[in-house]
Design goal:
With 347 residues, the chain is mainly beta. The protein has 3 domains: 51 residues, no CATH class; 104 residues, Immunoglobulin-like (Sandwich), CATH 2.60.40.10; 145 residues, Immunoglobulin-like, CATH 2.60.40. It has no helices and 23 strands.
């Protein structure tokens, strides 16, 4: 049995690099040249326009195709296509919504697009994206990723610039398709998020090697397990304001959290305090961790989770009761998540 604690706002920083592509040949048009045949069959060798590609004949019959881009002063070809189809309309793209507030200096931004229009149907497909950002409503749009095939990336904490608390970051994107049509950037931001560094906390596991896991050995159904004194989790308020702590429970298996143990229903109770010994008793109702966020109060989870001052630490103690019976095999391992959340305390 494993009970895993997760922190909202946990950011995994991944470093991405954008792949830059050059502009296509300039001019008013591109000239595509291929042989015209009358037999309605395969092209003759004269139809070959290069060593890695061949265009189709005037009857639209397929030909061998390139697996990579090829370009010259009078042509611009793309791999994987067996016909020369016109695609004269730009693709459509959009940046996905961000939360109104972000409580960290790095966060994930994602975007998507399609090369399909009502007028012409399916185009050649998305080639690359350009993504821009600005800081503050009056800030200037700045290139972040240019000509990238990525559809998501981590912004911050120092790249493309240092992310600052109290600022709002705006994002927009555009797409380029394989026919070199370029979408216009939208005039306004497609999404935005405010960096709120007043709220933040950390969780120290009882054993650093366990990665915030309280592991319970094999137990029988309808069995209660309390933490040992060494099992406690330590919550530290790293933000600038006092926090009201909250909890919710979830399971990665078939079990569900509840107020009372039942078939495939477990119970988790919790208390915040600054004692170094595990509580002897937990309230059967007020201390229950449910399926949705439940915040500490004067009577819920012990009064010390209600107002956790900046820089203050509190211990988190858990009490577990297994289901009265289970449809899972007895030798299966159950993983239960206890998710810790926090919000600014208001008297």
């Amino acid at each position: 049995m494993k009970v895993r604690l997760l922190v909202f706002g946990l950011i995994v920083v991944l470093a991405f690099s954008g792949l830059l592509f050059g502009d296509p040949p300039t001019g008013t048009s591109h000239v595509l040249i291929w042989s015209s045949l009358t037999n309605g069959g395969d092209e003759s060798p004269e139809g070959r326009a290069g060593s890695i590609y061949k265009l189709n004949d005037v009857l639209g019959n397929g030909s061998s195709a390139a697996t990579q881009r090829a370009e010259g002063t009078t042509y611009h070809l793309y791999g994987g296509f067996r016909k020369v189809d016109l695609d004269l309309r730009p693709p459509i793209s959009e940046t996905d919504d961000l939360p109104d507030e972000t409580f960290a200096t790095s966060f994930e931004v994602s975007w998507a697009g399609e090369d399909t229009t009502t007028e012409d149907g399916e185009g050649w497909g998305i080639w690359v994206y350009d993504v821009e950002y600005k800081v503050g409503v009056a800030g200037a749009w700045t290139a972040w990723l240019t000509g990238t095939e990525l559809t998501h990336a981590t912004f911050g904490p120092t790249v493309p610039e240092v992310v600052l608390g109290g600022e709002t970051y705006y994002f927009r994107c555009r797409a380029r398709d394989l026919a070199t049509n370029v979408e216009d950037f939208p005039p306004d931001a497609e999404t935005e998020t405010y960096i709120n560094l007043n709220i933040g906390f950390t969780i120290a596991a009882p054993d650093a090697e366990m990665d915030s896991v309280w592991k319970i050995d094999t137990i029988d159904v309808y069995t209660a397990v309390n933490m040992l004194n060494t099992d406690k989790f330590v919550i530290t308020n790293t933000g600038a304001v006092a926090l009201q702590m909250g909890l919710r429970a979830d399971s990665l298996g078939n079990w569900l959290p509840g107020y009372y143990p039942a078939l495939d229903t477990f119970v988790v109770r919790a208390i915040f305090n600054d004692n170094n010994t595990a509580p002897a008793t937990f309230h059967a109702v007020n201390d229950v961790v449910g399926k949705t966020n439940r915040y500490a109060s004067a009577t819920v989870f012990g009064p010390q989770g209600l107002n956790v001052g900046s820089g203050t630490t509190e211990n988190l103690w858990l009490y577990f009761i297994s289901p009265t019976s289970s449809e899972d095999h007895y030798d299966e391992e159950q993983h239960i998540k206890i998710i810790v959340v926090g919000r600014e305390f208001t008297p």
